[in-house]
Amino acid sequence: MPVTFDRVDLDFILRQIEMAEAGQPPVSPHLSFGLRQLQGTNNNTSTGLGGDASTFGAADQAMPLFAPDDQIFTAQYLPGTQFVFDSQPRTISNLIADQTASNPAAVQAFMAANGGRATFRVSGELTPHEIQTGRSGVITSFSSAGPTNFDHRLKPDVTAPGGQILSSTLQEFAGAPFAVFDGTSMAAPHVSGAAALLLQQHPGWTPEQVKSALTTSAAPAWGDTARTHEASVLLEGGGLIDVAAADNPKLFADPTSLSYGYLTTTESAVRKPLLLSLSDAGAGGGAWTISIHPQAATSGASITPATSSVTIAPGGVVDVPIVASASQGAPTGDNYGFVVLTRGADRLRVPYYFSVQLPQIARAPRVTIKRNQLGFTNRGTSYVDNYRFPTEPFGPPPDYTGKTFNEDGAEKVYTVRVNSHVANAGVAVIAAGQGALVEPWFLGSLNENDVQGYSGTPVNVNALTFEYQFDNGVAALDFPHEGRYFVSVDSRADPYTNEPLRGAYVLHYWQNDVTPPRFRFLTKVVSAGRPMLAGIATDRGAGVDPLSLVIGYKQTLLLAALYDPGTGLALWPLTLGPKVGVGRTPVIAVASDYQESKNIDQAGANVLPNTAFRALRLRVVAKPTATWLLPKARTCARRVESLFVTAGSAKGVRSVRFLDGRAKIAKVTRSIEGLYLTTWRTAKASRGKHVLRAVVTDRRGKTASVTRILRVCHK
Questions:
Q1: Which of 79, 223, 551, 700 is positioned for an S-S bond with 231, CB 3.0–4.6 A?
Q2: CA-CA distance, 155 to 184, in Å (whole number)?
Q3: Does the pTM exceed 0.70?
Q4: Residue 173 to residues 17, 169, 459, Cα–Cα distance (Å)
Q5: Which domains does the chain have, with CATH numbers?
């Protein structure tokens, strides 16, 4: 019989749960929800109106009283004096009760009298604890989709509620014991709970049988909010779990989905059979019809059962070959849907997936990779316009329809060999022509649909970095097997206008970079205000990632405004940041190499193995300051050498004079955010050591100077 709860009932349940969480005494250790006994030392009552409390149960906290016509009377429970009317096992006091052997719970008693089952529905016109929105069973926009990377198998297995789920949580985390969450962490417990229920009902089932019951009996999950189009099996798997249907699945299927992977049609027709084993699950004996219900099918491809019907004896097993095939030269495309088994009104589904492949990237010019190479995506022919898997490395297209991206550049393929155990191998576009968007893709074979997972895409995939999910022109392999790989360098068209963005590029290659960049601050003493900070960051492996160069001070993060990979010079003008006052200001700098943006799985205790952190207590003074930046000290000067210093003063800088000993090189009165530069022509300078000086004069006439020793080495 249905059990109806009123709002007051539910409030009482919550009070009992809160009491249990708070550990309020007296609480018997064998009672759920922190409830108290009705008899013994912890009881507050012995009988109830209309029935014995030991039969139906009652609670010793304030709760509503019920009259025979279900009219609610509010009353406070006074220990030892009040009674709870509870003649029928359907009010809240029956659910909140002692569950000891001497005082069976009312729910248990009711279920025992009704075949061990009870149903209830939470309702109430004024307190709608259940609201029918018509939007249930719709795949969320953020739900992950198959197939899997590398082996391209059909996933997920099933779907379950995972959007806007009210869940218990830590009070200190959400500010309340319950909060609304989204994601796999919500869907997975639904499936786990469903599996637990099935095992409770069928303790003899194996894990494979539980999985089969949930998958083959699942209901459709919808691909649109109108609930008119079923979602792809690459989004829903077998569908939305239905525990009641899974309790009596009729048949067990092994495997629970058919993943054929790739059918490559370059040289010949392809035929790949998989065996589907069907066994009686207790009520599955008899004749079953087998049919194919495709969701997507491409030209020249098909999937067919070896027979259109089977007869399964009670307790028996039947194996059915299901064959996927494609003709020679069949075009690239995904094929998926369901193998459907029917017997009268009974209907079970087994999802399938295969992808026909006619790769084109092998037609592009190919060379062996070097440490650095110059290439062009605006010279030659474009053979490929898309790379997979994953299918949407840059996210969905701007209008959420059509192609996710368009790689329309002239590809060049670089062969990479990994001949030993290494942690990584990668490439980075370290320079590109004006207006060019050049992107490398790491492939496991000469197939544009064999991208080596997320790290093989030109996107930052390290969620611990500042530029996570940026298109940074870096692709890599993490913990690769020994063997041969390929890098295809292409150009992506503008995602909004589809205008081509092709051009020249410089591609840098590395293997086994497991160390962070070297970093040191140049500016350690600065003038009060908003000075320029500078540092040197270098890396001999993957190279420094300019988008990683960040300093933090006064609760502010600033990205480097300039990075010169040739010298390693990084500049942070504090123009848009907080002022620094006289004294000491703590500063921290972060510098990562390109490999860090590809680190999805880190080995060891350091979660950012390719990142350097440097702390500085910046000294801030109330007088002019200057710092030499370039060239490096004691190096040989070129015939025309560029000189760089940063200078500042709280009162403003009037000029910076550059001197070779006492000889004037130049006087500079204009700066770029505190950066002063000039050129030194050394053709007539004597060979040997030269002491250069930069003298800064502020608007009050105060000065400061810094020196730099260089050598003139040319003849």
A1: 223
A2: 14
A3: yes
A4: 18, 7, 32
A5: 3-122 (no CATH), 361-510 (2.60.120.380), 513-622 (2.60.40.650), 623-715 (2.60.40.10)
